[in-house]
Specification:
Rossmann fold, single chain, alpha/beta
Length: 218
């Protein structure tokens, strides 16, 4: 079965779910507003520049999860989906996913945003599977740590290769859609790399290598 692989933030979504989750926490006054806002902005700028320390960022973004019960987090995420995520969903992205699904392709999301944030989004988009940084949970509570390798930059390739070995899938005829320079390692690996509303660096690379560059913005 052909793999149709998708980045999430800035690709299938018109914004960034990770940054938006941080904004959501600030707006609900569930974190130190000034300090968290400043850090969230700083990390987002580092991500866009390709200089983000993913381990430092995950420690920051997962820390608030320790303060809430599973029931509280479930309700918060439902509100987050309604207020932040659904307005970022794009009709053209849905059409693209349906096109691949109609061709019998396996829809795989690979994202650097942790699975607490992105798992429900992947489900809402109809993905067959998601690869994302996995938050550690002990006794039904988040610890603020992650399990295994974060799926970021080269880590996306590492996590994908692990999944391919586990499942028996391969990359023959595979597609990967992304907006970000951070995804260049995986774009170089698939048979059909496709830039989507790409940042300046990826746009130039896509042009030089004659990769398709599409827009899903409504």
């Amino acid at each position: 079965m052909t793999l149709a692989i998708f980045d999430l933030d800035g690709t299938l979504l018109s914004g960034d779910s990770d940054y938006s989750w941080g904004q959501f926490l600030v707006e609900k006054e569930l974190v130190d507003i000034q300090l968290y806002q400043q850090a969230n902005d700083r990390f987002f700028q580092q991500y866009q520049a390709g200089t983000l320390d993913i381990h430092e960022y995950l420690a920051f973004s997962l820390a608030p999860l320790k303060s809430f019960s599973a029931e509280q987090l479930n309700q918060l995420h439902q509100d987050f989906m309604t207020e932040k995520v659904r307005p970022m969903m794009q009709e053209k992205a849905t059409e693209l996913l349906n096109k691949h699904k109609q061709q019998g392709h396996f829809l795989l999301m690979i994202t650097a945003t942790n699975q607490f944030v992105t798992g429900p989004i992947a489900e809402a988009l109809g993905m067959d599977h998601i690869i994302a940084p996995v938050p550690e949970v002990i006794n039904n509570s988040y610890t603020g740590k992650i399990v295994g390798i974060p799926s970021f930059q080269d880590g996306k390739v590492t996590r994908l290769n692990e999944w391919l070995k586990e499942t028996g899938y391969n990359l023959e005829g595979s597609y990967f859609y992304s907006d970000s320079r951070n995804d260049l390692p995986l774009l170089e690996l698939v048979d059909h790399p496709i830039a989507v509303d790409a940042d300046e660096t990826l746009s130039k690379i896509a042009e030089e290598r004659h990769w398709p560059h599409i827009s899903l913005r409504d």
